[in-house]
Amino acid sequence: MRKFIKPKVIVSKCIGFEACRYNGLIIKSDFVEKLKEYVDFYPVCPEVEIGLGIPRDPIRIIELGGELRLYQPATGLDITDKMKKFTQNFLDEIDDIAGFILKNRSPSCGIKAVKVYHGFKNSRTKSRAGFFGNAILERFPYLAVEDEGRLRNLKIRENFLTKLYILADLRKVKKSRSLNELIKFHSHNKMLLMAYNQENTRKLGRIIGNADKNTFEDLISKYQTVFYDIILESPQNTTNINVLMHALGYFSKELTHDEKAFFLDSVEKYRNGIFPLFVCLNILKSWIIRFNNEYLMDQTFFEPYPEELIPITVV
Ligand code: SF4
């Protein structure tokens, strides 16, 4: 059983922590509720932080003279500069964060599909990320950043959680300043990283191979640069399938024809979006245990995040 480190996650405070929305309400998220046991949450409400009350008149993003502004129509207040200043200070201060869960479509917290209005008119021009959300995406493109709306999708949730826990592990290695820990990290995450990007995973292998020519600081910095590049894009069904098939190879002589056919059928169902990935992973896990394969047992690919977080239905 993999031992998980609790990742640090910043969350929009209105998602299950405080009734701080403009209308004085709180958002219910079963996923965030469930996650409370497995991550360290740091809730923040940027609008309250810049001095807006609860409840308050809603704010919106407007495009004025080619510039985007954060504006409160009912009061005529322009809070763009306050929000930018708060965001910069806040993001300068945070440390060791693995991810963010942000309220969707908020002009402050949203990471996409936030309405932008045409000046002071009620017509919309386009959509984009909110002021706080956008700054996070720009500054931390490699972290796990999602909104609670998108996290209702199982695949997005799987990718988000996978990234959260691998980032928390890498941070622990960094803090340990131990080459052995880095080697162990790389070896345990090899198959998972392969699912992200084979070529860059080999590059990481070469960086580890040249470990003796570097100080730990140089080494981890080189490793981290390539690692962040790898996790920028989520694994695809096809790359996950490549790794599943590679893992099957470890048992091909021991399995019956029917067992293999059953597995291949599940892989096809995963390819076609009928099964989630963890169905295939669970079949492989049962064989890892049965044949006591120590190498695969240590691979995070088979248990990328705590299995209690797997449930398919999330409200
Ligand atoms: S979306 Fe962000 S700014 Fe708006 S209430 Fe929630 S935490 Fe506050």
Work out the helicity level.
40-55%
Shape: globular
Provide the domain count.
2
- Category from helices, strands and their pairing: alpha/beta
Tell me the radius of gyration.
Answer: 22 Å
Beta-strand residue percentage? 5-15%
- Biggest sheet: strand arrangement: 5-4-3-7-8
Order of helices and strands: EHEHEEEHEEEHEHHHHHHHH
Give the averaged pLDDT, no decimals. Answer: 95
Can you count the helices? 12
Tell how many strands the DSSP assignment holds: 9
Bound molecules: iron/sulfur cluster
Task: Identify the quaternary structure here.
Answer: single chain
Distance between the termini: 28 Å
Describe the main β-sheet briefly. 5 strands, mixed
| Low-confidence parts | none
Can you characterise this structure?
The protein has a 5-stranded mixed sheet with strand order 5-4-3-7-8. It has a 4-stranded parallel sheet with strand order 2-1-6-9, with helices on both faces. Helix 6 packs antiparallel against helix 7 and helix 9 runs parallel beside helix 11. The protein is globular, with a radius of gyration of 22 Å. With 315 residues, it is an alpha/beta fold. It has 12 helices and 9 strands. The protein binds iron/sulfur cluster. The site of iron/sulfur cluster has 12 residues, from helix 2. Iron/sulfur cluster binds next to helix 2.
